[in-house]
Design brief:
The structure is a homodimer. The first copy, chain A, is mainly alpha-helical. Chain A has helices at about 10-20, 25-35, 40-45, 50-60, 85-115, and strands at about 65-70, 75-80. In chain A, strands 1-2 form a two-stranded antiparallel ribbon. Chain A binds a DNA duplex through helix 4.
Chain lengths: ~120, ~120
DNA sequence: CGGTATCCTTCGCGATACTG
DNA sequence: CAGTATCGCGAAGGATACCG
């Protein structure tokens, strides 16, 4: 369990929520597919292991960003999805950051072409 | 250097931007104080070492979220501040996440009092 | 005061094997 | 298909000493 007993500052949680290599990508992907199975996520998120995926999904659920439904019967089937409140809200934050990411990429490209051109 | 040579996906950057225990807190604190010296940040951010602070500040500067001014003369003096574009923008994202953090804290409190009451 | 370098510990995470 | 358990390595991060 990586979640602390108690938080005093909301900022500490921000860190824990997005801590780890995969959380943001998982959230992003779930938002993209809306309702998605474990195996689907595993296919779509390149390089992630099932163990990591499950670990991170569990944490995201504990924070109330993600939820899941277990369907009865065989073969087993589950659906992961963002929670209406916090889950969908955090996508807004990720979108802002994603734009900043784009800006950064653009700047780097520009720097590189400038270098090649002359200086 | 923890920043990669090149990014293909903006989401990878989101992770790198907020990676590490301290980045969000540092950004938050700089935003709060607007222009701030290293020693001031060190005092205000509880538990951080000077080494970590400088390390993270450097990364934030490389991403263009933070910038600094070096003043001439002794004693040495610098001022760290958020960049107008990306720096101030990311605060919006942090604010959203901070609210989610608050929600989570409230829920936990409620759960605890409910437990005490009965069940 | 601001910043760099080094050493050492802890923990994230990948690989792998196993269960219902 | 969904999920748990174990183990080992490398990176993150804390402490500390030193430089301009």
């Amino acid at each position: 369990m990586k979640i602390r007993k108690e938080y005093t500052c909301p900022l500490e949680i921000i860190h824990d929520i997005l801590k780890g290599k995969w959380k943001t990508v998982i959230l992003w992907q779930i938002n993209h597919l809306k309702k998605v199975s474990l195996s689907q996520l595993e296919k779509d998120i390149k390089g992630i292991s099932q163990k990591m995926l499950l670990e991170q999904l569990r944490e995201l659920r504990e924070f109330g960003l993600v939820d899941k439904i277990n369907y009865e019967g065989y073969p087993l089937r589950v659906e992961y999805f963002l929670t209406e409140g916090k889950g969908e809200k955090i996508i807004e934050a990720l979108e802002i950051m994603q734009k900043i990411g784009r800006e950064y990429i653009e700047e780097q490209k520009k720097k590189n072409t400038d270098k090649k051109v002359g200086n």
